[in-house]
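Before relying on records like the one below, remember that each one covers exactly one chain. Contacts with other chains, cofactors or solvent are not represented anywhere in the record.
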Amino acid sequence: MSARLSWKGRLLSAATAAGLCLAAGGAPKAGELKPPPVDDVEQMCALFGACENIPVPQGMIPQDFPKCVRAMSEELAKPSGVGFSLTIRECGLRANTCAELRTCALRGAKPDACVGRGGQGTAGFCDADGRALSCFKDKILAVRDCPRGGEQCAVRSGESYCALGPCPAEIQEGAAPVCSGSGTRILRCEKGKLVSLDCAAFGLKCVTSGGPAACAPDTAACTGDAASCDGHVAVGCHHGRQVRIDCGAAGLACGGASGVAVGACTMPPPDKGDKCDPAAPARCDGASIKYCAAGRTRSYPCKATGFNRCVSDAKGARCGA
């Protein structure tokens, strides 16, 4: 069996925390997003690539260092970034060591909680404190602290999840997700249990905007493909609501140049003498990773996060203990 999470698992694993400041450096206004500087993304990717037993869904974080930096930078600098994984934002971008990253991602669960579970495939269970854990081959894939969101842990068909209780009569099994009366949650009936995604944990509201229920900022309406630049601020759409991305705060510029989408954050053009091939593989230079980012040569010292070497193998280049 695969270790991939179902719709419900993917939906709920994104909401592992509440009350998070969605932008580095402070709480943003509705619909405003500050992408993290590339230095912060590099540190996060170094930790995820080298630290062991970090409970994040498989495939979420590329193991290859430059691929991780590129993927995470892009995800955190586009309109949908307002609803991107809280584990990445709260733990990945704030941790300085493997211990800090692991402790944060575990949400209080015991590191050995999955020992003896998930040998034949993904297995879910509720721990003694009501957390929903997903296990695979003795390791924790994901943790959700159900009590923190006012929910209860439940297990059905080998999968653990957080639920608000039995499904009410007005929300039928298998029906499309709807918004809660308060407008703070996406609700759906799954096997008799009312499962939810707490939009408020992201600083968002539940909206429909003529389509399925989704988490979006409480901002002006816009069309799905609307994109523009307001100086160094990229203005885009997320589920029919406007999002303003402060590219300049991360040392980025708003796109529009050749090969760059209008309304997208991008690194400024490299200096004339510093142009490299972004497709070139990263390489180790002593204990540092050298790679190309948007035409610029960059070097990340693994010792900055406590690792003593750079490792290059079939998975790519990354830091190692």
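The chain has five helices and 21 strands.
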